[in-house]
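Appendix B, example 12.
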Amino acid sequence: MVMRLDVPAACSLQMVDDVVAERQGGKNAGFFAGIAPDWRDRVQAYIDAEGSPDLVPTWPDIAHKKNSFLNLYLSPKEGSVQGGLLSAMRDHELSLCPACGEAGAPNTLDHYLPKGKYPHFCVTPHNLFPMCDACQTNKKEKTGDAANPRFFLHPYFDVFIADQVLELSIEPPFDAPTFDLSAVAGLTAPQAALVDRHLQELGIVPRYGRFFRNQHQRLLRLVLNLRAADLDVEENLIIFRENSAHPTRNAWEHVFYDAVLANADMMAYLIGGDLPAYR
């Protein structure tokens, strides 16, 4: 969501056809066969609406069979088409959470439109993506409200998040600075508002605060070592910034170093100021 992801290789429409076909020998064969055309249309509508909850309706007519859908995700049979999809999506190589940018491999899958409200999208590839536990705990079943029908960035459809969308401002005193994390300047007003809602609803700012305090202390230690070795502080911080830009410029370390390098007063402090001693 802060990191754009490639659309899953599995076709969301084909998933409907395959699931319905697999169920033709079971007790729910008639139910799935009967809803197949409508289910397919709703998946296509999701794709056309880019997952936006204000444009994608729920499906009250299948409420009595909600568990039949949820079991596709919660209890996939060995060798089932959805079981293979879920295994493939969990077997990723991400080294950070695409929803928040925090380092660490996300160990769960999230449903952009929550499976409790939209059980018919519980194994729709376009509705699934990796997410860390902290983000999922904050997201839960939320989608939006009356004032803001959409809270969250979509990792497949919000193409603008391929660029840096998070901006950090650092305020003195630089030995114990404060910070603000927000949408980067230059976004459209709707894009900036969506980024800010995403930050708020996933609780990213207070989580980033803990990272920021630790990262700031590491920065001061790093700069002390660079100065002691008579190495160029700015050149080395540029290297740290560029090394942290993969796989996304919204990674927490990249956002941090980018803000430090853009802050002339802070750079003057780091290069020539009286830094606190660390043991």
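The chain has two domains: 12-132, 163-272. Residues 12-132 form one domain.
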